[in-house]
Amino acid sequence: MSANPETTKLALSGFAFMESRHFDGVTLGIAAASILLFLATGGTVLPELVGYWRGFGGQPDVILANALILNIAVILFGWSRYKALSRELVERCKSEEQALRLADTDPLTGCQNRRSFLPAVNALAGSAAASGCEIAVGLIDLDHFKAINDYHGHQLGDGVLLETAARFTELLPEGALLARLGGDEFAFALTYHNDEHPRIETLVDRLVASAANAIQIGDTTLEISASVGVASSRHADGTEFPAAGGGENLMNRADMAMYQAKKRGRNRVQWFEPAMEYEQRFRGELEAGIRRGLRANEFVPYYEQQIDLETGEIIGFEMLARWQSPDLGLVNPDIFIPIVEEMGLIEDLAKTLMAQAFEDAKHWHPRLTIAINISPLQLRDPWFAQKILKMLVAHAFPASRLEIEITESALHENPGLVRNTLTGLRNQGVVVTLDDFGMGYSSLSQLRMLPFDRLKIDRSFIRDLKHDDTNAKLVGAIISMGVGLDLPLVAEGIENDAILKTLRGMGQLKGQGYHYGRPEPAEQVLERLAALNLLAPDANGPVDAGNADLSEVPAQKTA
User: Fold this and answer.
1) Alpha carbon 101 to its chain's center
2) Of 134, 130, 202, which is closest to residue 171 (Cα–Cα)?
3) Residue 89's pLDDT is what?
4) pLDDT surpasses 80 at 477
5) pLDDT score at 88
6) Residue 554: is its pLDDT beyond 60?
7) Measuring CA to CA, which residue among 511, 456, 537 is closest to residue 316?
8) Is the predicted pLDDT of residue 516 greater than 70, yes or no?
9) Quick one: three-class SS letters along 285-300?
10) Beta-strand pair 225-232/454-457
11) Residue 267 CB partners (closer than 8 Å, separation 6+)
12) Which of 74, 106, 393, 485 makes an SS bond possible with 180, Cβ 3.0 to 4.6 Å?
């Protein structure tokens, strides 16, 4: 069984105290014995010594005289040593008190730290329960604080933390707890009566507002916001949330609420709701399932047809990720991709899916391309282009048949790195498409500076094309811009024949959507291509030149 560090610390401190007390006692005992000996001999020897020194008597006993002088020296030494040890003991006690105080306090802000906050919350919860009060625990996270440290330096960052802690301390009532848990994360706890919940809500709103006020440090004005999650033993509607597990459970719930506050836009307060606990549990199960699924190869590529709208020919496929979960069934990427990105597993997933897609596409007609969506997180890797090219070589797949699609959000984080990455891929023959065009903030200068081969019009513009004149005008403007910039366009989200006819009248476009069929696994793609004589020569004998017209193939109905 491992030793408790707190117990060890207290034991060592107590040992040092007892050791000092032991030496003090010995020293004091020696001094006391010397005093007694001095009193016993001094009454006889001292008068003789004084008389001898003044010339009124004979020489005193030398042994007794030396013993008396030695006694006086021992008394003086013992008293001096006793005083020194007493001072040392006092200083040691002060040092130990300071060490304990520092161990429980954040050295920058003077607030409590993570180590001391939880026991303090547990004690506060106990006293609140005994007095019939409620307890609220809040976690405060400063939004985008890392940017302040990166752009202005840690000294100014520390100044922001100091000022923020001072503002929180001023607003919190007497008896409330405030801690800096680490980095830019604070926590508070306070008790209140059942009918005071509105007051607590107002207080938390004021905490958020105070964090949002500009902070002046020297000549620099800094602005920041805060996301707050709050959990209490009773909700505003009177619903009780039993604090099973005490302060730790309340802190966990406050953390869930803070995550929701950030998810919903930051700079806001979010109170804990029971549904968050269910969501957290479901997310935990998803994360465990994703890790297990990656090991068990449960993630597979599906393929959606891409069509030349003018001729009706298949020009390629877009690869879409699917999760064949034994527990959840077939899971769409909208559910698991964000979680995979947050878990830091997107590169592993992308590598697995791309490897399978390259092998699948080798069985298709050589003129058919494959488009693969790239996460913005992958473009942060300066070696991303080299990794893609290495995979192409490993699978003997032509770069000219690969098309990568990136969203507009990937352009703003590090434009220089993105430009170098895309240029490197294009130089090797890879086609680069800007996906979901129109939904982000791409400027004409970015379209001119970044090496795109085509634009993909977002499905939200295409889906309501026949019912919204504004959408039709926007799509027409995008198509005109693409023609002007010599950028081919792809329209996604073609759901029916009416939309298809409208798009055909707008210019030469490529498109995809459920009008042509839903995404299919590799086996169904092979069956479709075999029926159209569009397999690779080694897969299906001689291959037609590729003039198969899908207008003769019945469109699959959407679900």
Assistant:
1) 30
2) 202
3) 77
4) yes
5) 79
6) no
7) 511
8) yes
9) HHHHHHHHHHHCCCEE
10) unpaired
11) 143, 208, 212, 225, 226, 227
12) 106
Alpha carbons 68 and 195: distance in angstroms, whole number:
80
d(CA 195, CA 133): 10
* DSSP letter, residue 229: E
Bridge pairing between strands 520-521 and 134-143: unpaired
Average confidence score pLDDT of the chain: 82
Residue 1 CB coordination number (10 Å): 3
3-state SS of 175-217 is CCEEEEEECCEEEEEEEECHHHHHHHHHHHHHHHHHHHCCEEE
Q: What mean pLDDT comes out for the span 301-310?
A: 95
Buried b (16+ CB within 10 A) or exposed e, 130-140: eeebbbbbbbb
Q: Are 143 and 267 in contact (CB under 8 A)?
A: yes
Residue 361 has pLDDT above 80, yes or no: yes
Q: How far apart are CA 156 and CA 222, in angstroms?
A: 9
The answer to whether 491 and 465 are in contact (CB under 8 A) is no
pLDDT value at position 60?
A: 63
Distance between CA atoms of 521 and 304, rounded to whole angstroms? 9
Assign residue 344 a region (left: φ > 0; alpha: ψ between -120 and 50; beta: otherwise): left
Contact status, residue 283 vs residue 339, Cβ threshold 8 Å: yes
Q: Are the CB atoms for 180 and 113 separated by under 8 Å?
A: yes
Longest dimension (CA), the chain: 146
Residues in Cβ contact with 517 at an 8 Å cutoff, skipping those fewer than 6 apart: 304, 305, 528, 555, 556
Orientation angle between helical segments 522-531 and 346-361, nearest 10 degrees: 30
Q: Phi first, then psi: give them for residue 132, nearest 5 degrees.
A: 75, 20
At residue 541, does pLDDT exceed 50? Answer: no
From the list 220, 284, 277, the residue with the least C-alpha distance to 254 is: 277
Q: Name the amino acid, one letter, at 497.
A: D
Give the containing element (helix H, strand E) for 110: none
Cβ atoms 455, 437 nearer than 8 A: yes
Find out whether 401 and 436 touch, Cβ atoms under 8 Å.
no
Annotate 161-189 with b (16+ C-beta within 10 A) or e (fewer).
bebbbebbeebbeeebbbbbbeebbbbbb
Q: Would you state the pLDDT for residue 6?
A: 43
| 236 or 299, greater pLDDT | 299
Span 283-298, pLDDT tens digits: 889 999 999 999 999 9
Under the banding of pLDDT at 50, 70 and 90, the label for residue 410 is confident
- Over residues 135-159, the mean pLDDT reads 91
